[in-house]
Amino acid sequence: MSVCLLWLGLSALWQAADIHAAVTIDQVTLTVLPASNVESGTEVIFRCEASVSQSLSQSLTYSFRLLQDDQVVYAENISASVMEHSLSSVRVSNSGHYKCSVHIYNKHKMSDVLSLSVTGLQIPTLKVKSDIVSEGEDIIATCSASEEIGSLVFYFYENDLEVKRVKSNGNSVKTILTTQKVTEIYLRCAYIVMMHSNAGFSNKSNMVKVIVRDLDAITPQISISPKGNVVEGDRVQITCMVKYPSDLELYLTKNITILHKSHTTFTKSLVVRAEDSGDYVCKAEKGSVQKKAVYTLHVAELFSKPILRMSPEEVFEGDRFNLTCSSNVTSSVKIGKADIKYVLLKDGGRIKEDAEYEDTASPATNGKYYCMAMAKEVNKTSSPHDVKAKVPVSAPVICAVDEVIVGKPFRVSCEAESGTLPINYTLLKTHVPVAHRTVVTAADRAIFNVTFISFPEDINTFTCRAYNRGSSFSRTSEPLTSPVIVPVSRPVLETKEDTISEGSDLTLICRVQQGTYPITFTWYHNRVILRPSIKEVRSSEGRHVIKAIKREQRGNYYCEASNYASETKESDPAKIDVSLALWKQAVIGLLCILLLVAIVIVLIFFCKRVSHPRRRKQETELSVKPSRPKSGDPMRISLTLDIEDNTVLNGTPGVMGRNVWSGNASGSDSDDPPDEDSKLVQPQEVGLCRVPVTKSIEHHYSVQHTEVQVSTPGVLEQADGQAALEYAQLNNSEQGPA
């Protein structure tokens, strides 16, 4: 043994030293011998073989595990690569799915699943503790299948009929069987394996005969004395007897009531009444066995059960009422009517020893009344009579259940504070009944539906009437009073003006002709609510001010009005136009003027450009008469000024032409005024773009000139100097030939 332990230790050290050696499990194979389908009792061998590859040639430790339905049933650690496990005698419980697993170092591999099917169950054995029992005695039976393993379910049969089923974790079970039959019975048993119910039932066990003996010895007898006619008030003796009182219980019962209990014979004595008639049972009981005897007793009635009557049947508080108790004599041979005595009781207490009682109805007289009749030790009580004085109805109160809105339906309730149910209610309008209701339970209420009212004052025309004992005792309420809501009329939106200047304040006034306060007004601009614009006021009009209105706020405005009537009315839209501010209008006017001026200047310039070729051909002629002529013919000097050249000299396109002769230009020192005969020819307008030309006639050599107005300042002086120079040159050229 020590050598084995030493070898195992060295093997473990060797494996630990060479833990880095490469090992792989190639395959694990599980086989079963002799076959996978065998009969019960066959020896079966499971063989598990592991195929391993390794880098070093050394001894390995194989950890084998054999599993049945994923539960380990066998395990072994060996150095061999093959493990065998033997089952000497397999049973159905050994059937299942088997697998084999192998562990080497940190390597693990599982075989394929192998199924083992075992057929055939052992025949069970049945035994009983005693095969002769008395009626009602228990039978103790044991059923076993000694060779089976696992959990079993045993079935017990009585005359081939199943009578009991018992589960057991072992292969045997003991149970108690009970039978009520007095006869011979035959018992058998069988079983199934719980985990393998598909294996079916085993064959039934051996048959056991059990004899059940009758227990006539405990059958009782019953007798009643006196025999014959029995009348109420008679005393009778009831005897219950058994011959062999041994370990039993004896009962006297009537219906389901036990009158007496004993273990031996006994006699019960009692004074009977009519309700004591019926079947009396004497019953003997031993274990689960019962034997009984029955006697029927008939008791004649001495007098009838009394009856309590009240007159009148219904009373109200303050009314008088009368109670009367009466009973009839049945057995006139034994008693007379005068022999019956009466007692009146209320809530269990006596109030009068008489057959009649009279009182005034009030809350104090309410209660349960009884009547008792007595004769010859026989007492009979009447059924209870519940006396409860009704309460007259009080004046009802009418009130509105819902909000009252003109033109809409609403509900009113009519309720009396006191009064016995049922109560009849009637709704009246101007004293005319319009609806009826009957209240039966306290949870009910008299609710009336009113279609509508046209005016607020119509609310006071409603009243209600209540009665619970006839219409002659009815009570009427006060007129209905309730706040009445008048819906708002269609509002009107008012503004001070339809057009308003930008930056000004716009006041919107929403006004209604009628409507209960408070009224909620809401304003809208182009179907968009103005915020904040919802105002709840106690007035017929609401105001909304838009501060410093802008151009984009022009458009359609309208308002809505509503109150607690939950009915919203909408006004007609009002179109508001927002004009520009005054300063913006002034700026726009100024811009327009500037635009017009710019347009005129552009047009003038365009016209000049168009007429330029025509002006180029035009000439300006100037005629000069000498102040001292040398001959009779006047001297004319014509000077042609080219407009284009003049424009170039002046550098100003606005100068159309100019007379260059003047007294200063000729170099004369004469300051004499021009001659009276000299005439100034006024310039004539030649179209829109024509330049006027001035002609002058002088009787002297001094030259009178005409000036053309130039739009460009500073150019006039330059043109005058140039013209004077040209005139001097021309004058000298003429004087030379003279």
TrEMBL record:
The keyword DNA repair does not apply. The keyword Coiled coil does not apply. The chain crosses the membrane at residues 586-607. Residues 617-636, 654-681 are annotated as: Disordered. GO terms for molecular function: transmembrane signaling receptor activity. It comes from the Eukaryota. It holds the Pfam family Ig_2. Residues 26-117, 220-295, 392-481, 483-577 form the Ig-like domain. This is Platelet endothelial cell adhesion molecule isoform X3. It comes from Carassius auratus. The gene is pecam1a.
